[in-house]
Amino acid sequence: MQAVLLGAVQGVAEFLPVSSSGHLALLENFWGIKPAGLGFEVTLHLGSLIAVLIFFRHDIVRLLAALFNSRQARLHELREEKQLALGIAIACIPTSIGGLVLQSSVEKAFASIRWVGVGFLVGGMIMLAASLFSESFALCHRQKAVPSSCEALWVGLCQCIALFPGVSRSGSTISACLFEGLAPEAAARFSFLLSIPVVAGAGALNVLQLMKGRGGEMVPLSLLVLGFMASMVTSYLSVAALLAWLKKRRLVPFAAYCFAIGLIALCFGR
After folding, report:
1. Which member of 67, 97, 108, 162 has the greatest number of CB atoms within 10 A?
2. How buried is 152 (Cβ within 10 angstroms: 0-12 exposed, 13-18 middle, 19+ buried)?
3. What is the mean pLDDT of residues 117-134?
4. Is the dihedral angle over the CA atoms 121, 122, 123, 127 positive or is it negative?
5. Which 8-state DSSP code applies to residue 210?
6. CA distance 186 to 199
7. Residue 225 CA to its chain's centroid (Å)
8. Which of 203 and 8 is assigned the larger pLDDT?
9. Beta carbons within 8 Å of 267's beta carbon, 6+ residues apart
10. How does pLDDT run across 190-209, given as a tens digit for each residue?
11. What per-residue confidence (pLDDT) applies to 218?
12. Using an 8 Å Cβ cutoff, are 17 and 174 in contact?
């Protein structure tokens, strides 16, 4: 049951804007539930990665075609897909640097559940402000489908905030896109496609740690399978649900949820 629960939390909170790292910290603090070593964590992240690859398989094919096939019929579509692929690559740069520079600070934040609560509150405020801005922006301007290179760099910088527990990666990147005038559904699409290299990179680092013998305790194969399946299924459903939600609704309910969880962590955490 713990393997399934951890897999479900990873899948839901990785893509819904509510912070998977923050929820895992809460599970460990309040109920003593935590992933059993790096091997299990890698398995959960692999489930999320496979889910998003399956969901966006057609988008990925179009991005690759735009990069390597100059004979695409519609020039405008070619430019848009190339810009999207370039934006994803640019947004990964500050995140990679931030992960190295902020590593010690992030580890300290994980040690205190109250700092996790602060992260939830910060994430909630960012999403609330972005949602209100996007609504007012849409009344006066036409919303975009793809960020420019400079805007993608800004998204990558905002993604660095999500290194801290409690601040959602998807919430921070979607909010950054909303501030730049992207339509909510387009912002979510960019965020989810950006998650592919980010999750893959995090998994690769964990694999390197495993190869160095720092993986912690061994986990039975049956539990790895359960965690993987729970993570993959819930990740796929979460991506589909958020994209459908943002077609007609805002991030405000997720911001309210983060405020509530953040206050609970501040009041009862250590």
Report:
1. 162
2. buried
3. 92
4. positive
5. H
6. 20
7. 22
8. 8
9. none
10. 999 999 998 888 777 777 77
11. 65
12. yes
User: What would the two tokens of residue 57 be?
Assistant: 């398989």
Which own/partner contact pairs does 102-109 have at CB distance under 8 Å and 24+ positions apart? 102/160, 102/163, 102/164, 105/164, 106/163, 106/164, 106/165, 109/164, 109/165
**Is the model's pTM score more than 0.85?**
yes
Predicted local distance difference test score (pLDDT) of residue 6:
87
Q: What residues have CB less than 8 Å from 201, skipping those under 6 apart? A: 92, 96
CA distances from 80 to 70, 115, 155, 231 (A): 13, 40, 18, 32
**Of 40-44, 240-244, 257-261, minimum mean pLDDT range:** 40-44
Q: What's residue 108's pLDDT? A: 81
Query: Which of 34, 21, 4 is CA-nearest to residue 216?
Result: 34
Least confident of 5-9, 49-53, 68-72, 264-268: 68-72
Q: How many CB atoms lie within 10 A of CB 148?
A: 14
SS3 60: helix
Q: Please name the residue that has the structure tokens 């579509």.
A: 77
What's residue 231's pLDDT? 93
Mapping DSSP onto H, E and C, the string for 227-241 reads: HHHHHHHHHHHHHHH
d(CA 215, CA 148): 40
Q: Which two tokens stand for residue 252?
A: 């405000």
Which two three-digit tokens encode residue 176? 């950054």
